[in-house]
Specification:
By secondary structure, the protein is mainly alpha-helical. Among the domains are: about 60 residues, SRF-like (3-Layer(aba) Sandwich), CATH 3.40.1810.10; about 45 residues; about 40 residues, no CATH class. The chain contains five helices and four strands; from the N terminus they run αββααααββ. It is elongated and about 105 Å long. This is APETALA3-like MADS box protein. InterPro entries: MADS-box/MEF2_TF, MEF2-like_N, TF_Kbox, TF_MADSbox, TF_MADSbox_sf. Pfam families: K-box, SRF-TF. It is found in: Nucleus.
């Protein structure tokens, strides 16, 4: 028994509709490739399913733009007219917005004020006051941030200073370093011993003398 003819109407079941679309789409693509090879035809196909999936086929040697241009020439239909008109409408809208914004900028700079009434001037004044408030707020924030950064750097410097002082104190207390804290202060203050080498009584310098005997007046 042969296959029955399918009534050409919308398939209500979504699953069956998608399966039928996939099968017939593959068949159409196959036929298009056969026409391209057998008949040396320029074939271009664009398909959009109900779910928004896009499928296309274009002959390997075919330029789609040239096909569209030839179609417009033969059919007399301008495919780009509606799109061009929409683009022109959008352009005019953007030009209007640009003109309005430029006028507002000039007015905030004190220019082009002749055509403004009391209400508009009052609104402009309030806008300028709000802008000035925001600028001041930003300025104070920057100052506070820079002050906090300076405090952190100052704290780090103080910590490094304390570490160095502690290290010097440790060197003055340890007999192997050869310098006492008293000698260091004497050197810094220019006391009676401008150059003083303090050390352990049992240590000898490189010349063989006791280190506590070496002092230069």
């Amino acid at each position: 028994m042969g296959r029955g003819r399918i009534e050409i109407r919308k398939i209500e079941n979504a699953t069956n509709r998608q399966v039928t679309y996939s099968k017939r789409r593959l068949g159409i693509m196959k036929k298009a490739k056969e026409l391209t090879v057998l008949c040396d035809a320029e074939v271009s196909i664009i398909m959009l399913s109900s779910t928004g999936k896009f499928a296309e086929y274009c002959s390997p040697t075919t330029d789609l733009k040239k096909v569209v241009d030839r179609y417009q020439q033969v059919s007399g239909i301008d495919l780009w007219k509606d799109q061009y008109e929409r683009m022109q409408t959008t352009l005019r809208h953007l030009e209007g917005i640009n003109h309005k914004l430029r006028r507002e900028i000039r007015q905030k700079m004190g220019e082009d004020l002749d055509g403004l009434g009391i209400k508009e001037l009052r609104g402009l004044e309030q806008s300028l006051d709000e802008s000035l408030r925001l600028v001041r707020q930003r300025k104070y924030h920057v100052i506070a941030t820079q002050t906090e950064t300076y405090k952190k750097k100052l704290k780090s410097t103080h910590e490094a200073h304390r570490s160095l002082v502690h290290e010097l104190e440790m060197k003055g207390e340890h007999p192997d370093y050869g310098f006492s804290m008293e000698d260091t202060f004497a050197m810094a203050n220019g006391g009676p011993h401008m150059f003083a080498f303090g050390g352990h009584p049992n240590r000898h310098d490189i010349l063989g003398h006791d280190s506590h005997d070496l002092s230069l007046a």
